[in-house]
User: Fold Molybdopterin-dependent oxidoreductase alpha subunit from Azospirillum picis.
Amino acid sequence: MSVDGLSDDDNTVHSDQPSGGWGSVGSMARIMGEERPSPAVLNTLRRQNKPGGFMCVSCAWGKPAKPHTFEFCENGAKATIWELTSRRCTPDFFAEHTVSELKGWKDYDLEQQGRLTHPMRYDRATDRYVPCGWDEAFTAIGSELRGIAPDQTVFYSSGRASLETSYLYALFARLYGHNNLPDSSNMCHETTSVALKKLIGSPVGTCVLDDFESCNAIFFFGQNTGSNSPRLLHPLQDAVKRGVKIVTFNPVREKGLESFRNPQSPLEMLTGKETQISTLYFQLKAGGDIAAITGLIKHVLAAEEQRQAEAGTPVIDPDFIARHTVGFEEMKARVDAVAWEDIERESGLTRGELKQAADIYIEADRSIAMYGMGLTQQVHGSENLAALVNLWLLKGNIGRDGTGISPVRGHSNVQGQRTVGISEKPELVPLDRLAGQFGFEPPRTEGLNTVKACEKILSGEVRAFIGLGGNFVRAIPERDRMEKAWTGMRLTVQVATKLNRSHLINGEVAFLLPCLGRSEEDLQASGAQAVTMEDSLSCIHGSLGNNTPASPDLKSEVAIVAGMAKATLPPNPKVTWDGWVADYRRIRASIEETYPDQFHRFNERVFTPGGFYRGNPARERIWKTESGKAHFTPPGKLRAVGFDDAPGRWRLITMRSNDQFNTTIYGYSDRLRGIEGTRDVLLMHPDDIVAAGLREGQVVGLASDAGDGVDRRVGGLTVTPFRLPRGCIGSYYPEMNPLIPLWYHDEASKTPAAKGVPVRIVPDMPAIGRA
Ligand SMILES: Nc1nc2c(c(=O)[nH]1)N[C@H]1C(S)=C(S)[C@@H](COP(=O)(O)OP(=O)(O)OC[C@H]3O[C@@H](n4cnc5c(=O)[nH]c(N)nc54)[C@H](O)[C@@H]3O)O[C@H]1N2
Ligand SMILES: Nc1nc2c(c(=O)[nH]1)N[C@H]1C(S)=C(S)[C@@H](COP(=O)(O)OP(=O)(O)OC[C@H]3O[C@@H](n4cnc5c(=O)[nH]c(N)nc54)[C@H](O)[C@@H]3O)O[C@H]1N2
Ligand SMILES: [Mo]
Assistant:
């Protein structure tokens, strides 16, 4: 399905390479050359994602019990090599450069300095980071925190830290007195956590790896497997070989969902044979999913009517609907009333195209729905998921082998952090248990999520920010205003492996605390420590790093969290920070005590091949919703973006390249899209370039068109023809983040709507003094 008649030999920028293949090997080799990692890296890659080995720091996709010889992908290898670089960002580097100077550097150049080696304190007089001792840092942080009201403090986490670290971090926040625990998930799959919980009673996906071996169809919405979770291409390739049909809805023709050449298969590599992944690929409009899915539902309901008339076996699953769901009739009535012309206009797809997809869904006995940021990062992201759940409930495609809903999570432990208490929502945490276990009264008021934390930083109500990993200031919307407000805080602390922009925007008192990476050996009093994480499929895996740490002055994240907590809180005999640091098995024992159902015999099960499954009631058709049933939802708005069309207003999709991990830029090669050597591009349909009075290669800017009168601009983007639907344009995250208003987010979950941002094009606008 091509867009508006563009063919493969049109003049748009695109790539003829399959995902995987020699290109992926070349891409790994390039980063090997750049980072010059220690020779131990090959040994580490061999252990990557294997039982007893080390769990990749890149994506959260499931790890099979019987792994491939090399159970890693191009981007997983890049992430490991990135962590094991031989470059070091030492106190000498900070002595040479002021923080103001570094603010002018590109994200890529900052991280290229390599691993942080010493704890550093910001010195205002010289505008430099200067080395400090760990005790000095902890004591200062403790005394600052004791002087600030807990509810004016934010403890952020990026989704990489282990279950052990995350559990202690959340406990620290609650013992200190707040639930202000925003997580990268708030910018990512929070839509899933809120919407799926409401609709099917589970905040996470219902599939396990085995389901991919027994399904007949897989539907993909807004997830870029080839770049962001390439290991998932293996089960997809196997599924295709079994005859499974794969249907994709995505405004961008992503290579990984078109074809795959398995780099681990000598035959495929040598013969150039590749597997076609998607049977059908629909380039719908950004924000067109509710309309498209409603169209599919209309087709399914029409087929059901016809079957009834013919007295054949039903298309839908009436028994399931009667026993397990509520709201079917209201949903049906509303869908019946939706006009096809509205569906076609809003989705950008024809009734006939949607019929082809619906036929596959109707025919398949067992279907899996997979999705990513294309659905969650929209103003009506929760409605996207409600529409998808409607379609999946119709045929009882939840809670049977080979079926289910499978959100593809982002960071390698983002799902797990929620499981062990990193949540601003007190009702999701067993506070009574924590109270009994540790003899204190946990705070019961709702804490700040990412958007609310930003609002309170803007209004000056937040006085302290601790970042457990991540690059908060770069990842959030509204960057310009946020950076200005940030420096008004009293205390900022960043726990990190490499230098990034968030470290350069400082509070009055600021610390940069360097930690071990997951691939490194973590030696404590009782010996080498393992940590654990949870994958997208709710399986928990142990991970044991075995590389020599980048610097002898690093501490583990567990030790850093415990160090800050001990320096802040009054002594409590039940809260044994030193004991926990000495032996992480004790932390796992505490996790087990708080969550006995999911983590029983935790220490014994740490290295279960394939991980241990912590269970999901929705998979058993136990619906932990308000009604005790799964919910159909009558569709409301058909468009997921939060604005009307207007002349000169475009839908901007902020994209990840194949050469980045979130705000970490590995390089300038988006090889699966054929964009090389730059990230400063504005991707547009060739006819849109002409219609807008622009020309290919022209340098333009974008300005926010959100109608709130705030001037938000980014310049210096080269107009590049690309196969996108008319009216939709693309450019990279995080460079485009200054254009997203803070208030522009999914209504229910407050996930920033980074995939359908209203903008205007400003002709001939250069980049102005911006990194
Ligand atoms: N190598 C690598 N791996 C990663 C990451 C990384 O940056 N690099 N990031 C990690 C993280 S934290 C996350 S959350 C995941 C992100 O992984 P994904 O969920 O794949 O996220 P994106 O690449 O932002 O966007 C997904 C897709 O949505 C499509 N899209 C945009 N708008 C729409 C729409 O309206 N409808 C539909 N149907 N599709 C749309 C885009 O074209 C894109 O292909 O990956 C994780 N893994
Ligand atoms: N416009 C737009 N904005 C987006 C998105 C989008 O698609 N479009 N996606 C959103 C999504 S899905 C996410 S998840 C967020 C990501 O937001 P974050 O999770 O905050 O950002 P990352 O870029 O993953 O963080 C990178 C930094 O983490 C640190 N780091 C790496 N490894 C470790 C470690 O082991 N320990 C510690 N302590 N630190 C480490 C390094 O210093 C590195 O610079 O961005 C969101 N923002
Ligand atoms: Mo994410």
The pocket of molybdenum atom (ligand 3) is lined by residues 184, 188, 410-411 (CB under 6 Å). The chain has four domains: 19-83, 88-186+425-594, 190-408, 650-763.
